[in-house]
Design goal:
alpha+beta; Four Helix Bundle (Hemerythrin (Met), subunit A); 406 residues; globular; 3 domains
């Protein structure tokens, strides 16, 4: 179904492929003018007729064209709202079948409705100039994190496997990060002050702008195309994997009951056991071993595709089965993907064997290490990522030779 994202939109009425391509080109030229700071009225006079028939598919194809032409995600983010404001009413006219209760997209949209309520409540408190209430209410905005994480780690991987024009998803991820940064700054400035000031009001304006804008981008562009291009099986998988990350504001919905798999009597011995020179393990033993290591482990193969991740009890970073087969470059927002590309480049060239980082997160000190993997012949076979909580390890001193469980 990726042909829809390649501008052959069956929902474009009597438009054929050439007309669709023409709309995308006109939208692209219009956005170029906005980016260059040209007169908006003149741009509307020139491209207004074409913009009246714009579809969500055209919007995605246009942004893909922008990225391929060398326009940076930052440039797109700076001007996208102006473009969206012009075509907002036209995109609203696009007819698409809204999801029903029980559909994964239904819950994403329900979370948006709840977020709107939270934002409106905060607006009222700002009008009442109730500093204490506003400070407490801002905490509720952080709950939306589950929504953004489900998109990044579950919805986006499915769309990447289906859409030809999937680069705009990385721009949306980048806006998620902008929201996170603004929320942290807002929380910090509210803690440091006792009453409203110009900087606080400015930050609130930026947060409202980004969070309301994200709702529009989701429901006017991404969701209509997603529901028309992903299969019912895809959506069931997205729904089931959503419980691993959690939901924002709404109660967790019912899970889809899983059918018990019948034992496959035709499995070979190699499917059941893992046997090497240093020992052999049944599959369940191997899984238990890996999941009980006090580490987050992720394996990326020589084609830069995620092939495995462990499931420790306390996970540091979100993972879902949707990322299996996903290009590791797509697992990161545009602002940090250059680091990933650099590591892969050096590992493949054999000039570096490992890379390490450490961060402080949720009161923990996390060590993150990447190891280049080569076989006995020296061929590059991929990357092993290992993350470990070393908070307590950093404080170890002296020796401990006796067992003491008290």
């Amino acid at each position: 179904m990726s042909e829809f994202i390649n501008n052959n939109d069956k929902h474009a009425g009597n438009s054929n492929k050439k007309e669709s391509e023409k709309r995308v080109e006109q939208l692209f030229q219009f956005s170029q003018g906005i980016i260059k700071g040209e007169d908006g009225n003149k741009l509307m006079a020139k491209y207004g007729d074409a913009l009246k028939h714009i579809t969500p598919y055209d919007m995605i194809a246009m942004e893909e064209k922008q990225l391929k032409s060398g326009i940076s995600p930052q440039q797109i983010k700076e001007k996208i709202e102006k473009v969206m404001n012009v075509i907002y009413e036209h995109l609203k006219k696009y007819e698409w079948e809204k999801p029903a209760d029980g559909h994964a997209l239904y819950y994403l949209m329900q979370e948006n409705r709840e977020l709107e309520k939270v934002l409106n409540t905060i607006k009222q408190s700002l009008q009442d100039k109730d500093y204490v209430k506003v400070t407490n209410q801002v905490e509720e905005l952080f709950i939306m994190e589950h929504h953004y994480m489900r998109k990044e780690n579950i919805l986006f991987p499915f769309l990447e496997k289906t859409w030809e024009n999937c680069r705009p998803l990385a721009v949306m991820w980048s806006i998620h990060d902008d929201i996170r940064i603004k929320l942290k700054s807002l929380k910090k400035i509210l803690t440091e002050n006792e009453d409203f000031n110009a900087a606080i009001f400015k930050l609130f304006g930026e947060v409202f702008f980004l969070m309301y804008g994200m709702i529009f981008k989701e429901e006017l562009v991404i969701y209509p195309v997603a529901i028309e291009t992903l299969s019912s099986i895809d959506w069931r998988k997205i729904h089931e994997q959503s419980f691993e990350i959690g939901f924002s504001y709404i109660e967790a919905p019912k899970r889809i009951s899983k059918q018990k798999k019948k034992p496959d009597m035709m499995k070979s011995v190699s499917d059941i056991f893992w046997k090497v020179e240093t020992g052999e393990l049944a599959k369940d033993q191997l899984e238990l071993l890996l999941n009980n290591l006090p580490l987050d482990i992720t394996f990326v193969d020589e084609n830069d595709e995620v092939r495995y991740f462990s499931k420790p009890k306390d996970r540091f970073f979100p993972r879902s089965p949707a990322i299996i087969g996903r290009k590791v470059q797509n697992c990161h927002p545009p602002e940090s993907v250059h680091i990933v590309k650099k590591i892969i480049e050096e590992f493949k060239a054999g000039t570096k064997k490992e890379a390490e980082f450490w961060i402080q997160m949720k009161g923990k000190f996390i060590l993150i290490k990447y190891f280049a993997m080569h076989d006995d012949s020296g061929n590059y076979r991929g990357i092993l990522e290992v993350s470990q909580d070393i908070t307590e390890i950093k404080n170890i001193e002296g020796e401990k030779r006796l067992l003491n469980w008290e």
